Amino acid sequence: MTSMSVPDRAGGKGRAALRRGRAVAASKPFQIAVALAAIALGALLIYRALKDYSFDELVAAVGRVPTGRVAASAGFAAASYVCLTLFDYLALRYAGKPLAYRRAALASFVGLSLGHTIGLAALSSGAIRYRFYSRWGLDAGEVAKVILFCGLTVGLGLSGLAGAALLFEPGIAWDMAGLSPAATYGLAIACLAAPVLYVLLAACLRAPLVVRGWSIALPGPKLAVAQVAVGVANFLCVAACLHQALAGVREVGFAAVASAYVVANTATILSHVPGGLGVIETVVQHLLPGVGLVGPLLVFRFTYFLVPLALGTLGLAASEAFYARGKGSR
C-alpha cells in the first residue's frame, strides 16, 4: 500500500533537482559528514548543559532528592524511550518496510536522544535516522513516511494526555494560558476526541485522504490503536519521570505535574527550544513556588536528556565504527 504520494507539479526540472538531492543525501561522504557532525554536536551539548555547575554543586543538588525517587525517575525515563522505539517499529510497518525491533530501537534511540537536546527533533533526529535506515534498504521517501508517522504519534499522545490532564487538573491552564473554565474543559474534550476520531477514521475510511494535493493513506485500525496507545504511554512516562523528581522535595499530585508538563511541552514544541530549556523550569516554578527546584530539575534533565544523550552519542560513534569495518552488511 502506498502511504503517501504527491502530485507531479514540479515538471522535469523539479524531478531532476529532487533526484540530485536524493543522490547527495545517499552519498557516503554526506552521510559520514552528518554522522560526525551529530557526534560532535552531542559532545558539545553535554558540555554546554553542565558547564555552569561545578561537580560539587551538581552532586549536592541531586543529593537532596532521595535515591528512590532518582531511581524511579530514571526508570520512567527508560520506559519513555522504550515507547519511542515502538514509534519507529510501528512506523516502519506503516511505511511497508518492517525491520527487526533491534534495528528500529537503535535508530530511534540514537536519533531521538540527540534530537531532544538539539531541538527541532523531527528534523535533527530525522537526519540521523536516515543514516541508519538508508543502510537497511529504505529510500528517502520511506524514511519521510516513518518520520511523519512518528510525528503524528507524538501529536496523538500529547493530545490524549492533555485532555485527561486538563479535565483533572485545569488550574495550570487557567493560570498560565488565561483560559476560562469553559474553554479549558472544551479544549480537554477536543483533545480527548482527537485520538478517538483518528482511530474511527482509520477503521472506516478505505480510500486515502487527499489534503491540498497530498494523498495520505491512514494505517489500519489495529495499527492506529497501537499508535495512540504507545503515544499516550510515552507522555505518561515522561510526566511520571518529572513527577518522581519533583516529589523528592515536595509532595505534588501526578495530575498537576502532568498538566504542567503538557503546557511546558506544548510551548517547547511551538518554540523549538532545545530540551525545553527554561520552559519547563518556568512552568514548574509556577506549579511549586518557593521550592528549591535545582535538584529535582537536574535529576529530570539528567535522567531524561543527558544520560540518553551520552548513551546516544556513544551508540552513534560505536555504530559508525562498526559499519566502517564493513560488518554492517552481515
From TrEMBL:
Protein name as annotated: Lysylphosphatidylglycerol synthase-like protein
Annotated keywords: Membrane, Transmembrane, Transmembrane helix
Transmembrane segments: 29-50, 70-92, 104-126, 146-168, 180-203, 223-242, 254-273, 293-317
Coiled coil regions in record: none
Cellular component GO terms held in the UniProt record: plasma membrane
PANTHER family in alphabetical order: UPF0104 MEMBRANE PROTEIN MJ1595
